[in-house]
Amino acid sequence: MLPASLLDQLCSVPGFDRAGFLQAHQESQAPTSIRLNPSKLPPLNDAMQPIGWSRYGYYLQQRPSFTFDPLFHAGCYYVQEASSMLLEQAFMQLMPQDQPLRVLDLCAAPGGKSTHLYSLLPPKSFLVANEVIRSRALVLRDNLIKWGAKNALVTNNDPEQFRALPNYFDWITVDAPCSGSGLFRKDPDAIGQWSVAAVQHCAARQQRILLAAWEALRPGGILFYSTCSYSVEENEAIAAWMIHELKAKSQTLHLQAEWNITPADPGYRCWPDKAKGEGFYCCCFQKPTDGSQPVLPRAQRKLRSVSKNEMSIVRPWVNSEDAFYLLLHQTVYAWPSHLRGEWEACVALLHVIYSGVRIGELLPDKLVPDHALAQNNDLHHSIPSVSLSLSEAILYLQRKPFMPEQAAKGWTVATYEGFALGWINALASRINNYYPKELRIIKDSQAS
Ligand code: SAM
Fold this sequence. Notes:
Layout: H1 4-10, H2 18-27, E1 32-36, E2 48-50, E3 57-60, H3 70-73, E4 77-79, H4 87-94, E5 102-105, H5 112-120, E6 126-130, H6 134-146, E7 152-155, E8 169-175, H7 190-193, H8 196-216, E9 217-227, H9 236-246, E10 249-250, E11 262-263, E12 268-270, E13 280-286, H10 308-314, E14 323-328, E15 331-336, H11 340-349, E16 352-355, E17 357-362, E18 367-369, H12 371-374, E19 385-387, H13 390-398, E20 410-416, E21 419-426, E22 431-433
Parallel strand pairs: 5-6, 5-8, 6-7, 8-9, 19-20
Antiparallel strand pairs: 1-3, 1-4, 2-3, 7-16, 9-13, 10-13, 11-12, 12-13, 14-15, 15-17, 17-18, 20-21, 21-22
This protein binds S-adenosylmethionine.
S-adenosylmethionine (SAM) binds next to helix 5 and helix 8.
């Protein structure tokens, strides 16, 4: 049973149709949808139906076992609720596509919007994907590695700490922690946890997060605010407060009528009985220009670059000519050269837990390649690979023993349908499986 106090409050909200809303919760299921990775495009099939508001978004007719699909582990797609993909319309309509941008996703784990933003960045831009909860920040990092990200930093900071970068970002996404009513259809257990007090608690927290984000946004920049809550206190009331307190200017999006997304006052709502997706609210704000310039942080500490000698060990593994290779605790990372100064400053000011591409561990005479290098298209073309069958790929992802017929000796990338899964090291009589333990498929079979 949906909370009566929530339903009563929604009666006055534009687009709310009590009967349709109740029916959507009682009689229909949340549609399954995925978003493809443009840098690892998997083959399409007839069962995939495009989502109108996202270039790479598709509905699936049924929910397959993603766990047992190697392409899921290769980072070819992200399983994401369709309404959330509205972010794409906002980003494409409100941001210039021909200049590098500094983009922050402030509440980013597990990474749905970060991987989406990453796919939309104009060349030479970069993304800071931040998550305050440590364990969730690690999942965010893993998802960006799987996505093949290069121009991204993953940070584990409280939003307050972004005040150290005043007027810095061109775009900030605040996909705020919320009371979660928009996901009741997907997760009926959440109904029991909902309360008026939780809504009020979330609204106060949303204001705190937005105040810090606003500091870090450059004048003229755009803040995208979203929740998966239906409550006015977390949506329109927060937007009204932004406009009143911060002089934020709410932005209009051009959305096609057949998408059935409802204009709110201000912002936009997805109702599950109208748009094909779950409950979602978003509103975009521009920060007024006041003549102040972004304060570019100065690097306080230069990081140690890989020496010429060390580079002779690293070079055979990597493709990129245009990278700065740095050494941190014996681990080599590749950064886009043009971002070195800015990233050094970010490393000094924020708690950066991942940056660029982790290439591997440098030993005195060799490199032990990292999983991130295999999942990234910067890997040198001369590195051998071996194509696995579906059953071999599953054994590989479970870290169980298997012996592919064709594997060359030494470090080899295990692939499935042309997409990299990770490393193996083939010895004369056995294969060492280097798929990261923490990512392995734990289930034995689809049935278990
Ligand atoms: N944007 C993510 C995506 O698309 O995959 C989902 C984000 S979820 C709605 C909100 C996130 O905010 C959670 O990861 C949660 O851990 C984080 N969070 C919780 N409390 C927070 C706080 N006080 N400040 C910032 N983020 C917080």
